[in-house]
Design goal:
Elements: H1 9-32, H2 36-77
Length: 78
């Protein structure tokens, strides 16, 4: 029996990942144009979003693992 209420990281963080990518592109453009402060700020935003994405993936993995454990306990008790 598979626990049907699991969630995937991809469905939640794909938008965050796309936004981080856009900041990385902005960083490259700003750096090429000599706008170093703007490039640094874009890089900082991208890093924050990447960390957020990683944190969410870790939380979801923990949730899914706990859900699987619960499913096995329920199956064992039945």
């Amino acid at each position: 029996m598979k626990f049907e209420n699991t969630i995937t990281a991809d469905s939640i963080v794909s938008k965050i990942d796309r936004r981080a990518e856009s900041f990385r592109k902005e960083e490259a453009k700003a750096s090429a144009a000599g706008r170093h402060f703007r490039a640094d700020m874009a890089a900082a935003y991208a890093r924050q979003l990447e960390r957020l994405s990683d944190d969410i993936r870790a939380e979801i993995a923990a949730h899914n693992e706990a859900a699987e454990d619960m499913t096995q306990e329920i199956a064992g008790a039945a």
